[in-house]
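Sequence design from tokenized structure. All designs in this work follow the same two-part layout: the structure record, then the generated sequence. An example of the structure record is given first.
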């Protein structure tokens, strides 16, 4: 009986948890970037995509993407409409206070990064300008099924 109650509560708690970096700050309300299917002319670019146009009024906005596999390539980019604005971009996995990667826009107002992760990640965009506009792109490729590594458990 105790085991079944323990299993029930552990399942219930995992349902309630969000797939985003952890915070106790109630003012941080991250926006989920929902991925939609994407079919390109060249099948290597097929996958899922999210393109968001942002008019940022606060100095910091928070986003997160969930449902990722370590076998999926991920590309994320920001293109500012005003290259003179200074942006600080932080990729966060576990919590918003400790960024795993940080970056700034280049001289043309662009930034892009490719990486892989499991589960989810968070993106924090900081710009001290009073009002700034940019496009945010997240592309997630199809999961690679056959990556060419032979199994160590089969006989040749």
């Amino acid at each position: 009986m105790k085991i079944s109650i323990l299993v029930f509560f552990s399942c219930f708690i995992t349902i309630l948890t969000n797939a985003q970096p952890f915070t106790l700050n109630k003012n941080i309300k991250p926006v989920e970037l929902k991925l939609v299917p994407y079919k390109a002319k060249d099948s290597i670019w097929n996958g899922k995509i999210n393109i968001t146009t942002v008019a940022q009024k606060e100095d910091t906005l928070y986003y997160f993407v969930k449902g990722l596999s370590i076998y999926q390539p991920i590309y994320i980019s920001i293109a500012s409409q005003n290259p003179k604005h200074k942006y600080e971009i932080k990729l966060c996995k576990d919590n918003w206070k400790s960024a795993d990667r940080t970056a700034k826009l280049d001289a043309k107002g662009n930034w892009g990064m490719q990486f892989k992760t499991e589960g989810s990640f968070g993106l924090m965009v900081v710009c001290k300008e009073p009002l700034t506009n940019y496009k945010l792109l997240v592309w997630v490729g199809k999961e690679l099924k056959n990556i060419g590594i032979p199994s160590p458990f089969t006989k040749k």
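The chain has one domain: 21-141. We note this feature because it recurs in several other targets discussed in the main text.
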